[in-house]
């Protein structure tokens, strides 16, 4: 139970960096001496110190380390990247014990970090709150194990099931939900729309109502119909244009050419190569329906305004026969959260 308590604290710390560590995972670490926390840390962003190093540096009396236990939510890394391997640092300092939440399935680690520590004669326990630690890094694990981003479907619909009124952009959600949506953008790696949504709404797809990092914008525009002066091409974020015409890069705009045949798999392969770990599929209906029909999604978020009837317009995607994991009320709006279940 004590081990679980400290791993839980590590998870809390790791979550503080949500949306800022790509392509690295979220990791938290706690150092405990005689039942007292003497150090804490988490990975702030890619290229900076890992969680274990930040926790070690926060310890005031380093002489206590050889008698201490270090808790880490994910197996310590074993390879040289932008920073040296954390497993070697743990070995060098000679911790009494190491407790790991989840093992790292990334082929550069995958048990190697644990082995380095064990071979040094340090006791290692792994699999503590493993499910929670894997959930913390659902994006990272999906990317490395399934070779594709973690996919979140998202749309807002009226009480009578429309996305807009008379096929014109229509405000459906309230200000509270808008804040939630912008936090979602800040938390995820990328956001995707199709040609029609870009042409109809001219969205910028940036984070505005909360503090956070702008997601990578992905535009599906096979025939390059969206004009270059549209908001999706402004300088505020990177934009990837999936098309069938050209492959080139101009400043923050990256054109990737793929085939229309087997579109979803081609897209997943392209985003995997771009190291995109999570993507919000924001529309429109045609694009969303392709992912639903292709059984290619991990979460779905449906915003509903039960007081709004639009009577005519673009119909919401067909998404019947599923039960939400939970529903939350945001004043006069509700949000249904779905998790993909394999049958």
Which features would summarize this protein structure in a list?
single chain; about 350 residues; 10 helices; about 25% helix
Tell me about this structure:
The protein is of the alpha/beta class. The chain contains ten helices and 15 strands. The chain has a ten-stranded mixed β-sheet, with helices on both faces. The protein has a five-stranded mixed β-sheet with strand order 2-1-3-4-5, with helices on both faces. The two termini are 34 Å apart. The model has no long low-confidence stretch (mean pLDDT 94).
| SS-based class | alpha/beta
Give a count of the beta strands, DSSP E runs of length 2 or more.
15
Q: What sort of overall outline do the alpha carbons produce when their principal axes are compared?
A: elongated
Please summarize the sheet with the most strands: 10 strands, mixed
Estimated radius of gyration: 22 Å
